[in-house]
Amino acid sequence: MLYTDKVMDHFTNPRNVGEIADADGVGEVGNAKCGDIMKMYLKIKNGVIEDVKFKTFGCGAAIATSSMATEMIKGKSIEDALKLSNKAVVEALEGLPPAKIHCSVLAEQAVKAALSDYYTKLGIDPAPIVGDIGDCEACHVH
């Protein structure tokens, strides 16, 4: 399985790894059966994602997609972060093997899960804003 230089870079030097103790939103997606679990932490001020950190248990592609997704939403508005798609993450990484596309889906879902948590903490129903997060399709295969 060949990974692009971008994937290898984000796997060997992942950006924004860690936790935010007083995070405004925390989202966790994936499951142990599928083998990939992503947890994302957001610090939001005036509708902008000031900081984002992640912890991922999984393969190299899962770590790389988490890292890239955090880079893509850091400093962006919530609206822009909600537009983050797994396809955009794959493109930013200059491609992923077909068997690893689900990792990019998890990255998108982790961002949405953290934003859902943020809205829930504000007492706002996240569903109309964030939409359905869904499950990782790969998790249902195993």
In short:
With 142 residues, this protein is an alpha+beta fold.
Keywords:
19% strand, alpha+beta, single chain, 142 residues, Sufe protein. Chain: A
Can you walk through the features of this model?
The chain has a 3-stranded antiparallel sheet. It is 45% helix and 19% strand. The chain contains 7 helices and 3 strands. It has a single domain (5-141), classed as Alpha-Beta Complex (Sufe protein. Chain: A), CATH 3.90.1010. The longest helix is centred in the C-terminal third of the chain and has 21 residues, at 101-121. By secondary structure, it is an alpha+beta fold.
List the helices and strands and how they pair.
Elements: H1 5-12, E1 25-31, E2 36-45, E3 48-57, H2 60-73, H3 78-82, H4 86-92, H5 101-121, H6 127-130, H7 137-141
Antiparallel strand pairs: 1-2, 2-3
- The helix content is 40-55%
Order of helices and strands: HEEEHHHHHH
Measured distance between first and last alpha carbons: 20 Å
In DSSP terms (H or I, runs of 4 or more residues), the helix count works out at: 7
Beta-strand share of residues: 15-25%
Give the class-level CATH name.
Alpha Beta
Shape: globular
The overall pLDDT average reads: 93
**Strand order within the widest beta sheet:** 1-2-3
Here the CATH topology equals Sufe protein. Chain: A
Q: Which stretches are low in confidence, meaning pLDDT under 50 for 5 or more residues running?
A: none
Q: Main sheet, how many strands, which sense, barrel? A: 3 strands, antiparallel
